[in-house]
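Final report, Chapter 2: Outcomes

The project's central promise was a pipeline that accepts a single protein chain and returns its three-dimensional structure in a standardized token representation, suitable for archiving and comparison. That pipeline is now operational. To close this chapter, we reproduce one record exactly as it appears in the project archive, with the input sequence first and the structure output second.
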Amino acid sequence: MACSLSELIGLAIVALLLFSMSNRVQYYSKMFIFIFSALVAAVFPIPIMLHRPKDWRNALIPAWCIVKVGEFLGLTFEIQGIENINQKEGSVVLVNHQSAIDLIVLGKLWPIIGRPTQIAKKELFYLMPFSLACYLWGTIFINRQNHKSALDTINKQSKAVSERKSNILFFPEGTRNQSETLLPFKKGPFHVAIQSQCVVQPIVVSRYTHLDSKRKIFGRGKTVIKILPAVKTEGLDKTNIDSLLTNVQNIMQENFEKLNDEVAASSNMKYY
């Protein structure tokens, strides 16, 4: 049956609307695939995890899966500076926080950091059964609304760093940030580092130039994870927290900017 002129015009308009919405549709489709796959990857191995609760090795299967999901979506991650990892002692590991896609960063780091555990906001504890999986691989949930409670919980982990040589991962900015400047760091991680006299292990992740939550862009791209030399805290006390925080943030900001420039130059990309 032949289409009338008005029908053709209508179809053309619909096609143009779909084309103009392609970025938005692609963004939400890929983000749904990523989040759903992450939940499945975390929950599916729970029966295995129950045999060794609160063991960091329980996250190895989910970590491998989430990295593969990222590759399927066109996201590649390269790690630099593996030689800077502190293998003999516990540490406080700091990573800049950009997006839910940071789960892939954790997936890449988890097998190589050694004896890792993670700090997460208490709200995630109620996201069952995902929170059960997190608990089973040793995630520490804190109440960020109650500063004293959060600090008490974090400080208790100093024993884990000292006695079990654990490596506790923090997002020191406390929230997601896709700008070129890191947000002010929280003091919690530095309390742990000084109290346990362990090193601070800074890690910077280049900007997700292929991901823009405001413009709803989710493209293919390469991200570099750079592990920086550890910062010692031996001999420091609580009076040195501010200076330690400032020093580490400056180190991470400087290397974050350099890394972004290097990645942009190597891929001939411009930042959004």
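Archive annotation: Residues 85 and 122 are 29 Å apart (CA to CA).
This record, like all others produced under the grant, will remain available to the consortium after the project formally closes.
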